[in-house]
Amino acid sequence: MIELNEVKKIDEITHAEWQIVRLIWTMGASSSRSIIDAVASKRDWKESTIKTLLGRLVKKGLLTRVKQGQHFVYSSTVSEQNAMNLSAEELFKQMCDMRKGQTIMDLVSQSKISKGDINQLVKMLNQKLKTAPDKVDCNCLPGNMNMDCQ
């Protein structure tokens, strides 16, 4: 089960912080030096900027920092898949239920997806089809005429 504090953590990540966390997911537990070098090879960011971002992510509870020799070693506290799921769930909570199907279709049509993933999606959708309602009700606030859901 996803805890509320994990959702709050993911919800607070800036675009720049996402880039740092994604790098750590790719590299695994890494020294500050290796993180700085990896980011510097892709971005025109100063070392102080990268250290600030690392510090913010530690403060937000998304990274841990352990001193090893002359460097700190950073590790993620949330798995990449869990973070992606939390982020998507938060986005979908803000959306009218009637719009979710089209949004998912748009995402699938615009995304690079392997044949294996497509087969899994087809299986999942066929299973979901067995119990799906004919129509999904609007869950927008009453009186909001700009939603055009009806």
Automatic annotation (TrEMBL):
Pfam families: Penicillinase_R (PF03965). GO terms for molecular function: DNA binding. One of its GO terms (biological process) is negative regulation of DNA-templated transcription. Keywords: DNA-binding, Transcription, Transcription regulation. InterPro entries: BlaI_family (IPR005650), Cu_transp_CopY/TcrY (IPR014071), WH-like_DNA-bd_sf (IPR036388), WH_DNA-bd_sf (IPR036390). SUPFAM superfamilies: Winged helix' DNA-binding domain. Belongs to the BlaI transcriptional regulatory family. This is CopY/TcrY family copper transport repressor. It comes from Fructilactobacillus fructivorans.
